[in-house]
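We emphasize that the prediction below concerns an isolated chain of 243 residues; any contacts that depend on oligomerization or on bound cofactors are therefore not represented. The input was used exactly as deposited, without trimming of termini.
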Amino acid sequence: MSEIENIDNNELNKIRNAFKDRDWNEIKSSDSWAIFKIMSEFVDGFEKLAKIGPCVSIFGSARTKPDNKYYKMAEEVAAKLVRHGYGVITGGGPGIMEAGNKGAKSENGKSVGLNIELPFEQFNNIYIDPDKLITFDYFFVRKVMFVKYAQGFVVMPGGFGTMDELFEALTLIQTHKIGRFPIVLVGKSFWSGLLEWIETTLINAENNVNKEDLELFKVVDTPTEAVKVIDDFYSQFMLSPNF
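Result of the prediction step, given as a token string:
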């Protein structure tokens, strides 16, 4: 079976349209509306999140089931964060995201959901504060909100989307585009293969990353350790949440 036979018609049309010659009127019409849509998403996000106070973004898979140990850990991490004075921001969907919002809600903390419209998997969970649910069309706008309004990042096991969010945060910190906020990876067994590849291939073999960049994140195994990393980071600056 050829590769093209595995692509549905909608995807084929997107590929064909990328090679299609368009006149100026078509470009002006379609791209102008896209710009207005992007602007509206930024404005909506800024207005709803500008006053949420100190929060931690929790990333992780939408496919994780409630009986999975990482779901339970994410729920506990979120609850502990709220008890320590933080609100919780998630991607607003099921799985780890749901667990994060559920944990925050259980402690009456701020529970933010940055949902994304997708053809499968994603729908907003029921544990998000109604005034703090935002649904985006554009991943890049959503990622700005994750980073702009978070004082730390807890990364649970996940797939491509979680890796994208993790490396986005790492890149912005590495390049000094944002402050050096704490990043915590939860689940040593899950992350060990990736971390070994970063060290042996990116650092030692190819010199594409500095060894010091491994200090941009911590790897832990328990919710208590995850929250402690964030608390310890801010205690260095005599800072604490001020809800």
